[in-house]
User: Fold these one by one.
Assistant:
Number 1:
Amino acid sequence: KNIVILISGRGSNMQAIVRAAAAEHWDCRIAAVVSNRPDAEGLAFAAAHGIATAVVPSKQFASRDDFDAALREEIDRHAPDLVVLAGFMRILTPAFVAHYQGRMLNIHPSLLPSFPGLATHRQALAAGVKIHGATVHFVTAELDHGPIVAQAAVPVLPGDTEQSLAERVLREEHRIYPEAVHWFIEGRLKIEDGVVHLDAAQT
Ligand code: GRF
């Protein structure tokens, strides 16, 4: 199976997936890492690991539709079975999302459905929640609302800052995102009435 990973910056979740795929000998190929920003730090890691990289510079497109069409063309050159959004900071058009329905995953740094959108750690601190975390979900047209594949929770501790909380959540992201992608590769994820079921592993 082919995986295309989309990033916008550091790409630490992408790195976690690339490392896990190699270490655990997943039955798949990371066909490409695509960024909407030419300066995304994660591109260098991907190239150093022999993965094809591409940039579709969102700033250079007049409209969201034009950008999404170019992005889709670049992604589909690699015939992906799965598209993985890993810190990809662009809102995608409904047509784009529909094209990858059931085969595009995202990670969001909150326990959805709490705190969709941006600045999730700030939102969590402002709300005074005592538990926070991360969610892997299928991408649907409504931002940060698709069927939930995996979640991990962390405590919010006294004295936490946005940064300390983000670091604690990120460690969990690096654990659950590779695991969820592996489940997809193994064909173990079923969506029924908007709810994801995990089939037992084949032995
Ligand atoms: C992660 O916290 C991700 O959940 C969020 O942006 C951050 C991206 O980090 N949407 P990285 O690029 O994977 O290092």
Number 2:
Amino acid sequence: MEISALTRSVVTRNHAIIAPDGYINSNVPGWTGCTTNVIINEQMGARLCQTIITLTAAGRLQGQTKASQIFFYVVQGQITVAAGGQEKTLQTGQFVYVPVGSDYLFTNPGEGTQLLTFHKVYEPLEGHATPGLLFGEKDDSKAPVYMNDEALRIQELLPNELGFDIAVNIFTYQPGGRLPMVETHIMEHGLLYLQGEAIYMLDQQWYPVKKGDSIWMAPYCQQWAASIGKEPSVYIYYKNVNRFPT
Ligand code: UGY
Ligand code: MN
């Protein structure tokens, strides 16, 4: 039997690794028939919220975005969403971006459907329209090579427009692929591994990570990663973008 006093999860002032073994469920008003795990939140010093929701067949998420926009991504399974006068059944790899001030209703999930959410208080930008509701999906044919390295590909899921103050990208590393440099930047990240294994360096600490693990990187958390194992490693990540650095 494994010793239950051990975990790969780590929480520091500037970064966190959250592995599923330590999840404790939260009750979120309007989200029923599901377990919700709040992975990243302002309580840890973050300016985004990241949750993972696992639904039963009776699951239902009903609510209204207020100050925060919410990006919902189907990690596995399927679910029907009604928002902004539209209705659509989302499958694994598909997403809906729900802008501020929108009602949303998710119903009819497959048993065990898992959703990832990123929330951030929306900062409007004068002269640029607030984004509307948006559907989309993971599509490897829309993932260009990153920094001239054939082992790395990034798909940007949201339009690269100044109206958006967040980016959500899917980053695929072929086996042996690694970041070409240690990044040191003002932008914050929330991240979920969708596939494979990797070594992540955060503030000069080294962590083995794998599918199902989440990472929080505060602004200026130094970061580097390399894929390990025989299959590509893939993560979806959030980044705050496009606003004046106050
Ligand atoms: O967009 C980014 O900053 C990205 N390259 N960072 C990361 O994957 N840790
Ligand atoms: Mn980065």
